[in-house]
Input
Amino acid sequence: GESVGLHLPTLSVQEGDNSIINCAYSNSASDYFIWYKQESGKGPQFIIDIRSNMDKRQGQRVTVLLNKTVKHLSLQIAATQPGDSAVYFCAENPGGFKTIFGAGTRLFVKA
Amino acid sequence: GAGVSQSPSNKVTEKGKDVELRCDPISGHTALYWYRQRLGQGLEFLIYFQGNSAPDKSGLPSDRFSAERTGESVSTLTIQRTQQEDSAVYLCASRPGDSRVSQPQHFGDGTRLSIL
Output
């Protein structure tokens, strides 16, 4: 997968504001997309997914948007809380069992 | 347990030693993955197993790395003659094996490997 070394893209937001984390995916054949959250010292945890026949899907406080035209995926977190501070990864599935992970974005929530 | 279990959670060893990392997937999950995550970086695919099919080893960085899986249960990742560059967190994930319906992977908390 891709790597940005020790300089993960970082997003800093104020507690209570909405957060938007963006991801550009690579394979136009990908038909399934996932967002994961990784807290310090833990493995990635599934947040929400979306299939290519949809352009929006909502969960609890989270929304995923998919724009297949420009191969762009975003994760919106409403009313961001300190517990949302983590690294967020997007992932795409171009078919079968292979999953391609993005480089990750670090979200800081300021109290 | 209900989730993916990895052991040990931490491993410190001297350069040149061999290490073996263990993963217990979720019961019934036929697909199992290993990833490497260096400090502050993303997930680097290493290998995956699916049922009785030949594993996809395309991500293994060198012949010092190998992995085995017993049936549809435990997997071990072995690193021989460890180097300092092998220091990383090694993550295991599993998912149900029905390829007709894509599903998310479930991750363990990883083994943090430190090579002195």
The radius of gyration of chain A is 14 Å.
